[in-house]
Amino acid sequence: MLGKLANDQIDNLLHGEKVGRLACQQDGMTYIVPVSYAYKGGQVYIHTSEGQKIEMMRMNPNVAFEVDRIMDMNNWQSAVLTGTYKELEGKEIEEAMLILTSRFMPFRTSETVPSKYGMEKIHFDQKPKTRSVVFKIEVLEKTGRYEKG
Length: 149
What we know:
By secondary structure, the chain is an alpha+beta fold. The chain has helices at residues 7-16, 52-59, 91-104; strands spanning 2-4, 19-26, 29-36, 38-40, 43-49, 62-72, 75-87, 132-148.
């Protein structure tokens, strides 16, 4: 049976998963990449390093974000969000880092997930290769589908 997810089901899916796919576009080129995220207050929070996706979103802040939970080919849920990229600054970074750290501290396995709230890795003998960026997706629309076999 195929169906549409209700808003609360979409929110449950977003709260329950840790990795989603972020899609952005610039000058006719579409780019999609998996990212770890936290979902709170109807917003998606992400901590990453500067690179192609950040450059593209700075030029075109319109993004899509997709999350799924797949048990098997006949039992799955998928949500797609559209929204706007907003790079965070100052106090907003601290608040977002608290949300992200609270979500990921038990699962820390990646260089883009910080080891301490509000702290970047400190290397006394070398400068970081890339700058960290904290941003959120201001969600404009959410849709979801499921199949239950």
